[in-house]
Here is the input.
Amino acid sequence: MKIIILSLALLWSISAIASNTILLQGYEQWINDEFEGEHTGSPALRMEADPDHDGITNLMEYALDSDPLFPSNEALPTAVRQGDRLTFSFVKDRSKTDIVYHVQTSSDLTHWTNVSTDIVTAKGSLERHRAVFPLTESRSLFMRLLVRPVSFD
Ligand SMILES: [Ca+2]
Here is the structure.
C-alpha cells in the first residue's frame, strides 16, 4: 500500500513540473536562443523585424541559419551566370519543419511562379538547392527565395 502512495506522489510531482515547463520549438526556440534576455513582447523578435539592419528579416535569418544580431549577407542565396544559364542556389535546413522555402521567378516583379529545385549536396539536415534558368535576351528574369511559416502556406 505504501508503494502505491509513493508512486502517485511521484506521478503528481512529474506532472507538476511538466505543466510549468514551456516547450519551445522551431522559430520560437531560435528566437529564445538568439535574443536571450530580450523582452518577450519586443518588436525586435518579430519575424519581419531586422534588428541588425542588414536587410534580412528575422524569419529569413532563421531559415538561412544566419546571426540576426550581426549584419552579414554571407548566407543569402547566390545567382551565378554561366554562358546562357543562370544558377540560383541556397542552403535549406530540413530540420526546420515550421517553415517552407520556395524559389520563385517573375518577369515583372508582380506575378511570381514557384519553380522546382534540385538538391546539389546534403550534409546532416542542410541541403544545398539550386534552380537553373536558361537566359534569353528578349525578357527580364527575376528570382527570389520566399520563406514562409508552414501555417501561411
Ligand atoms: Ca537582419
Remarks:
- Helices lie at 2-19, 26-34, 58-63.
- Residues 50, 52, 54, 56, 61, 68 surround calcium ion (CB under 6 Å).
- Confidence is low (pLDDT under 50) at residues 1-20.
